[in-house]
Design brief:
10-stranded antiparallel sheet; 1 helix; 55% strand; globular
Length: 209
């Protein structure tokens, strides 16, 4: 397979407006499964956006995001994107539409709206922000590849190396039952050792499948 990602970044300092756009294009000599064959990892559930690749060239994803920050502590962000669904069809979706508050002095962050989760990197897995053309199978199996849902995010950094947070969701993502709420808590650590960087994390989620 072959993949390429392009990004364009525009920043208008006086208006505090940032526009970001990116696309990921891949070519596969062979699809993940044959025609009329079920895409399923044995012993697991598959859902959400966890769809197989198909033969040929495809735009894996294309996104346009706008970030506006009128105040150092307040900002708003929106993003629309389209993803290849494995059948040479594309659907344009609003993936982020959120209001953010961040206090650097108190090391506190709050978000509300249509969000991308932060409890684990695999929850926000998307083409264009990863280094591989293939999808993360752990993300496919556990969360349907990537999550975007209406919710609330609260996080704090009690020290420069530790971040703790809680998120609550409407529950419109795999493996949740649509309309049932989902909740998660997470702990992240960040350490630097000369030229080395170590990031670790723990998270737990409660939902109705």
């Amino acid at each position: 397979s072959w993949a390429d990602t392009e990004h364009i970044h525009l920043n208008r300092t006086p208006s505090k407006l940032t526009i970001d756009t990116g696309a990921s294009v891949s070519w596969y000599s062979k699809g993940m499964v044959n025609d009329n064959e079920l895409w399923r990892i044995p012993g697991t559930l598959m859902g959400g956006h966890a769809l197989p690749t198909s033969t040929g060239m495809a735009v894996d994803s294309m996104a346009l995001s706008v970030h506006y920050q009128p105040h150092p502590q307040w900002s708003a962000q929106g993003e629309i994107a389209t993803h290849h669904d494995g059948n040479n069809q594309y659907t344009v979706m609003m993936e982020q539409l959120q209001l953010n508050y961040e206090s650097k002095q108190q090391r506190f962050n709050a978000k509300i709206g249509l969000l991308e989760p932060e409890f684990a990197p695999l929850a926000a897995h998307q083409h264009g922000v990863i280094q591989f053309s293939e999808n993360n199978l752990l993300s496919d199996v556990s969360l349907g590849r990537h999550v975007h849902d209406r919710g609330v995010h609260l996080s704090a950094k009690p020290t420069s190396h530790i971040e703790i947070g809680v998120e609550t969701w409407r529950g419109n993502f795999f493996p949740s039952t649509k309309g049932e709420q989902a909740h998660d808590v997470f702990l992240k650590t960040h350490h630097h050792f000369n030229d080395w960087e170590l990031n670790t994390g723990l998270w737990a989620m409660q939902t109705h499948a």
